[in-house]
Write a structure and sequence with these properties.
- The complex is a heterodimer of chains A (392) and B (250).
- Chain A is α+β, with helices and mostly antiparallel strands and 392 residues long.
- Chain A has three domains: 11-125, Acyl-CoA dehydrogenase/oxidase, N-terminal domain (Butyryl-Coa Dehydrogenase, subunit A, domain 1, Orthogonal Bundle), CATH 1.10.540.10; 131-233, Butyryl-CoA Dehydrogenase, subunit A, domain 2; 242-387, Up-down Bundle (Butyryl-CoA Dehydrogenase, subunit A, domain 3), CATH 1.20.140.
- Chain A has helices at 17-44, 52-58, 76-89, 91-111, 114-125, 242-276, 288-317, 322-346, 358-370, 375-387; strands spanning 131-134, 150-154, 157-168, 175-181, 191-197, 203-207, 219-230, 278-279, 282-283.
- In chain A, helix 3 packs across helix 6 (242-276) and helix 6 runs antiparallel to helix 9.
- Chain B has helices at residues 37-52, 68-78, 95-106, 128-136, 189-195, 236-245; strands at residues 2-7, 9-11, 33-35, 57-64, 82-87, 113-117, 140-150, 153-160, 163-170, 173-177, 200-204.
- Chain B is built from six helices and eleven strands.
- Chain B has 250 residues and is an alpha/beta fold.
- Chain B has a single domain, classed as HUPs (Rossmann fold).
- The chains are: A alpha+beta (392), B alpha/beta (250).
- The interface between A and B is medium-sized, with 23 and 16 residues.
Chain lengths: 392, 250
């Protein structure tokens, strides 16, 4: 049976015709171009670069940014549905699109000059330039304000020095958004964003080896050694830690939807397997233990869908808060982790094969659980929101 | 060139089907609908011809209930310029009745080509295209798998059982499109947004007299399990006897 998603509460009725059309076209694209190759890419530990032109032609990159920059100009629910469908294929592919759209195109769009927007956004939308986002450092993950990468102003520009780690798209990027302190290392207010072409002298990226998760994604360490940039490399409207965090809010919003996609892929696989696999003379789906598993999955997916739908409507209305995004990211990624693991178990021995998808999702989602604000950090953000006390 | 593509809105063939309580139609609840597969190929052919032969117009024409607008909108998102919705609810089973409505809409509009899918994936009649051609007095080539146009003349290939037939025809003409000719493109996200602004004209369908009606619709009987008659060469005589006497296939 072809993949048809999960819609137990007739959520389709809450979507507009365009939103459904966007979802269906990306779903068909994933079926045709990603599903046949993703297992092999994962085993070989390689990002499928050949899909970039197709993703760009479809209009996936920066899809919620305006048409004047060559983007599709979609609303945020449609954008979320794109992330959901991409992650139904693989978290690494959704990560690629999240980084390009939410972490590279969005800061240029929201903090860049007109010249920067005109120059970079159409190229990034067309996939002619690939971007990465350098915030996290080896010793500063959950606490990005503590970063020690510096940008010193000179008479004709800037000089950047530092190390960034866990950078998605790092090795294949042609341009990097690098966050650095322009003042003292204990002054987080001096954090500014820079557009750094990766061919600039002093910029090097190397793949992070030995990953057991997100294997079809490019993850790199970036070294910046006296990287000299012109004056106009700075994002003029960036300032303070809130600037990179505003990008992360965009990306986390997409992750909340993406996790539903991964969960639905696992549920769909588990359900089909439960119907077909005969043990003790009947389908395993006729046993109580597997029915409980499937009912739990269905309930969690349905709740997550309702959560994201309303979050998307709030985002479109301009009233969404970062804390609301934290709740959705925390809830949805956690439920997707649980569903992937339970689906893997329902599949029995077959569940450990790359031919099935659940274990790949299970391993991927461990990264998604940890990146873009760990599950625990989002708990503390919510804790601070409701009590008024910061516990971090 | 001016090209019309006639579309049918059909249930997605990947869905599970149930017969409605009237015993004559499909239970539409929970079904997803889409452009009939072969009609999708026809849209792709029209778009490619338009791209190859310079600026022209591709018009999608479809007959059915209001929900059909979504199907037309999909064609527009693929690149069709405008849509015409001929309102009819329910859609009659009688192909000739539908052909009358389409011919009334398509005549005297200066279309160089009128394209149909070879057959609809739900009713499977394959009659509306040729009947529309007859009512319009136009030549009709069915089930084509390859198409070339030059100098007001067309050449089409038809795949037959073990052979290929090449047919030439003058324009204007009616063609029905088989699979394999051109894989339908996915609508791009920009195409979906652009489709919102393209015109869809809605009007009553001038249906002809309905002469055919469906009396009964039944799903095939559930398949029963197999039977093992024995093992090894000893079981062969019994197997042959069963195939001969019971299954009656020998």
């Amino acid at each position: 049976m072809a993949y048809t998603g999960v819609d137990f509460y007739h959520m389709d009725g809450l979507l507009s015709e365009e939103e459904r059309a966007v979802r269906d076209t990306v779903r068909a694209w994933v079926d045709e171009h990603l599903m046949p190759i993703i297992g092999e890419c994962y085993i070989e530990g390689r990002f499928p670069k050949q899909i970039i032109p197709g993703l760009a032609e479809l209009g996936v990159l920066g899809a919620n940014l305006p048409e004047e920059y060559g983007c599709a100009g979609l609303n945020n629910v449609a954008y979320g549905l794109i992330m959901q469908e991409l992650e139904r294929g693989d978290s690494g592919i959704r990560s690629f699109a999240s980084v390009q759209g939410a972490l590279v195109m969005y800061p240029i769009y929201s903090m860049g000059s007109d010249e920067q927007k005109q120059h970079w956004l159409p190229r990034l939308a067309q996939g002619k330039e690939i971007g990465c986002f350098g915030l996290t450092e080896p010793d500063f993950g959950s606490n990005p304000s503590g970063m020690i990468t510096t940008a010193k102003e000179t008479k004709d520009g800037w000089v950047l020095n530092g190390v960034k780690m866990w950078i998605t798209n790092g090795s294949q990027a042609t341009v990097a958004i690098i966050w650095a302190k322009t003042g003292a290392v204990d002054d987080p207010k001096s954090i500014r964003g820079f557009i750094v072409p990766t061919a600039t002298k002093g910029y090097t990226a190397k793949d992070q080896k030995g990953k057991l998760s997100l294997r079809a994604s490019d993850t790199s360490e970036i070294h910046l050694e006296d990287v000299r940039l012109p004056k106009d490399a700075i994002l003029p409207k960036s300032g303070g830690i809130k600037s990179p965090l505003s990008c992360l809010t965009q990306a986390r919003y997409g992750i909340s939807w993406g996790a539903i996609g991964a969960a639905m892929a696992c549920y769909d696989e588990a359900l089909q397997y439960a119907r077909q696999r005969i043990m003790f003379g009947k389908p395993i789906g006729a046993t109580q233990i597997q029915q409980v598993r499937l009912a739990d999955m269905l309930a969690e997916i349905t709740k997550a869908q309702l959560l994201c739908h309303q979050l998307g409507r709030l985002k479109d209305a301009g009233t969404m808060t970062p804390q609301q995004v934290s709740l959705a990211k925390r809830n949805n990624v956690s439920m997707a982790c649980d569903i992937a693991r339970e689906a893997r178990r329902l599949l029995g021995a077959n569940g450990i094969l790359a031919e099935y998808h659940s274990m790949r999702h299970m391993a991927n989602l461990e990264s998604v659980y940890t990146y873009e604000g760990t599950h625990d950090m989002h708990s503390l953000i919510l804790g601070q929101e409701v009590t008024g006390h910061a516990a971090f | 060139m001016k090209i019309a593509v006639c579309l049918k809105r059909v249930p997605d063939t990947e869905m599970r089907f149930a017969v409605a309580p009237d015993g004559k139609s499909l239970d539409a609840s929970g079904l997803k609908f889409d452009i009939s597969d072969f009609d999708g190929y026809a849209v792709e052919v029209a778009l490619r011809l338009n791209e190859q032969h310079g600026p022209g117009e591709v018009v999608a024409v479809a007959l059915g209930p209001d929900a059909l607008q979504e199907t037309l909108r999909k064609a527009l998102s693929m690149g069709v310029d405008r849509g015409v919705h001929l309102k009819a609810d329910p859609v009659p089973f009688d192909g000739l009745s539908i052909a009358h409505a389409l011919a009334a809409e398509l005549k005297d509009q200066g279309f160089d080509l009128i394209l149909f899918g070879r057959v609809a994936t739900d009713t499977g009649n394959g009659t509306v295209g040729p009947m529309t051609a007859a009512l319009l007095g136009l030549p009709c080539v069915t089930a084509i798998s390859k198409l070339d146009l030059s100098g007001g003349q067309g050449t089409a290939q038809r795949e037959l059982e073990g052979a290929t037939e090449t047919v030439t025809f003058p324009l204007p003409a009616v063609l029905t499109i088989d699979e394999g000719i051109a894989r339908p493109r996915l609508p791009s996200l920009k195409g979906i947004m652009a489709a919102k602004k393209k015109p869809v004209e809605s009007k009553s369908a001038a249906l002809g007299t309905v002469q055919l009606t469906v009396d009964k619709l039944e799903l095939p009987p559930e398949r029963t399990g197999g039977r093992i008659v024995g093992e090894g060469p000893d079981a062969v005589p019994e197997l042959v006897r069963l195939l001969h006497d019971e299954a009656k296939v020998l």
